[in-house]
Amino acid sequence: MNRSIRNVPAAGLSCTLALLLFFPVAMRAQNAPPPPAQNAPMMNAPMSAPSHPHRMNPKKQLRHLTQKLNLSPAEQQEILPILQDQDHQLQSLRKDQSFTRQVRRQQWYSIHVTTQQKIKAVLNDTQKKQFDAMLAKRRQRMQARRQQRMQQNGASPANGAQPAPPANNGSQPPVQ
């Protein structure tokens, strides 16, 4: 009987951990907005490293760009190291918890803009136009999602929500 009493806290802990791991997945699957405490602006609080299960790795990004832009093998060889460097920089940024959310966001944006500029330097004029169109479409999707979240949360720039950052002459993060 002593054994079953000792295993009760471990079983309870296992159930609690299972619920904590499953609950966020279930919430995401239902497209339910996160609780208000998570939506509160914390511009000066350190940001934890979120998991990115759907994030494309550099090779997947390259395949996507190759398909959309009809990249030649030579262009692929030039772009892959650019994407790998971006991935390395973003991983380092995610791991470094010393930055505030605002600083981290600025650095993230800077990394993506630099990557886009390097990719554009490899592309021909037609591909550059296609790439810009891809980025514009991505910006529109992001803006629509941002507006939808703001409406779901009852937020607007007037009552504390952060407005969308201004477009940077077509320099937005690469399509992922």
Keywords:
176 residues; mainly alpha; 2 domains
Descriptive overview:
The chain has 176 residues and is mainly alpha-helical. It folds into two domains: 1-31; 54-176, no CATH class. The protein has six helices and no strands. It has helices at residues 2-29, 36-39, 58-69, 73-95, 101-122, 125-153. Helix 3 (58-69) crosses helix 4 (73-95) and helix 4 (73-95) runs antiparallel to helix 5. The chain starts with a helix and ends in a 23-residue tail after the last helix. Mean pLDDT is 74; it is low at 13-50.
Summarize the topology.
Elements: H1 2-29, H2 36-39, H3 58-69, H4 73-95, H5 101-122, H6 125-153
Summed up:
This protein has 176 residues and is an all-alpha fold. It has two domains: 1-31; 54-176, no CATH class. The chain has helices at 2-29, 36-39, 58-69, 73-95, 101-122, 125-153.
